[in-house]
Amino acid sequence: MYKPLGGKGKKAKKIKGNMEKGNDKYVQAPLGMKDLFPEERLLWVEMENAAREEFEIAGYHEIRTPVFEDTRLFVRSIGEATDIVEKEMYTFGDSAGTSITLRPENTASVMRAYLQYELYKTKKFQKFYYIGPMFRKERPQAGRLRQFHQMGVEAIGSYDPLLDVETIKVATRVYDRLGLDGYVVKINTIGCEKCRPGYRDILKKELSNYKDELCELCKARLERNVFRVLDCKNKKCKEIRKNVSNTEDHTCKDCLEHFKIVKGAFEDIGLDYTVDPHLVRGLDYYTKTVYEITHSAMGARDTICAGGRYDNLISDIGGPPTGAVGFAAGMEASMIALLKVREKNKESKLDTSSLAPDIFIVSIGIESRNYCFKLLNQLRQGGIRVDMDYECRPTKAQMKIANKLNSRFTIIMGSEEREKGVIKLKNMQTGDENFSEDTDKIIEIVKGNR
């Protein structure tokens, strides 16, 4: 992998030391932000491609929303008493005096677009997917950065419980395509606006018996957002929640029937799942089905994908009653789990061949450089990855660079080759050489050896 400090040895240590001393010469990235280098990007591209293919196979189409929105959108959709709104949003004012917020999640933005452009009037049922950065001001840790990335789907305009299962299956198909084994699908029902208030009262009463044992954060949640206590990762709070009533025992007939169909559909398609009776989501807009996909490789905070149904979200932000369901997968967390699984299975490292040029052109003498540059552009026009030396190195040093870059071929161009109009192509693996006056022939040889 690329080293963000720019190499190894004394130079890298010196740079790191200057940065740690606060030397203004080396400005660091903000806390919780990460640079992405070419070799690391390969895994991102692999994951993005797998997601796009599976999403589109299932009929979801890409939507791209702004990275910031009117703050009121997130307050109304996520919930004023949530950790995200209270502590984690990047909110600031623009020149017009409007409060805007970098998106902490993308479901609200997609619903806003669906409502703003009145898509429900032309085609009520819509399927969208997105891949992109989100922003939360939380304590950085493995798989959780302040600028993080999510890939997700939103199915809008239906109350069908089969759609709940479809979205979960789409997520697992992405992970299956990537070879991520060992994940666990957890589901639950959290009821609807008819039965949630009653369960909220019961839960608050039961948890009050353990108030002194709850963590400080959950003591506050007990009064403001009691469902969030069930989502706490604190070891003691996790033990306490085993002693309180579960949601399924206090949901209405309609919600139970919905959940029954969900479980039946899981069994019909042979997708393994676990009912977690205390599973909730941290956002206020969820109703009925909620789910998580977890992986033990992530430790205590093991969720790599989460979602559920949010039938009231569009009406909460001013639209008509509209059923909707979807998920968001954390890309950083998913990739950490994937790398650990591949390491455990002793799978080969990422294929970095796409970073290597097909041909590296070596120029003999300064007078050959313009000729080489012209040839380079002719070959690129034919779809060949070509590079050359731009530091005026000697011939021997250029050959070392070609080897270091793992170039598959080299072209060595000197005065003799220029005068004869001949291109000498050398295969760096076999040592075989080909001579041609025709760049199209060179292109044909290189493409034939890919």
UniProtKB/TrEMBL annotation:
Keyword Nucleotide-binding: yes
Cellular compartment(s): Cytoplasm
Gene3D superfamilies named among the record's database cross-references: Anticodon-binding domain (3.40.50.800), Bira Bifunctional Protein, Domain 2 (3.30.930.10)
GO cellular component, one term: cytoplasm
Sorted UniProt keywords: Aminoacyl-tRNA synthetase, ATP-binding, Cytoplasm, Ligase, Nucleotide-binding, Protein biosynthesis
SUPFAM superfamilies: Class II aaRS ABD-related, Class II aaRS and biotin synthetases
Catalytic activity: tRNA(His) + L-histidine + ATP = L-histidyl-tRNA(His) + AMP + diphosphate + H(+)
InterPro entries from the UniProt entry: aa-tRNA-synth_II (IPR006195), aa-tRNA-synth_II/BPL/LPL (IPR045864), Anticodon-bd (IPR004154), Anticodon-bd_dom_sf (IPR036621), His-tRNA-ligase (IPR015807), HisRS-like_core (IPR041715), HisRS/HisZ (IPR004516), HisRS_anticodon (IPR033656)
PANTHER family hit by this protein: HISTIDINE--TRNA LIGASE, MITOCHONDRIAL-RELATED, HISTIDYL-TRNA SYNTHETASE
Protein known as: Histidine--tRNA ligase
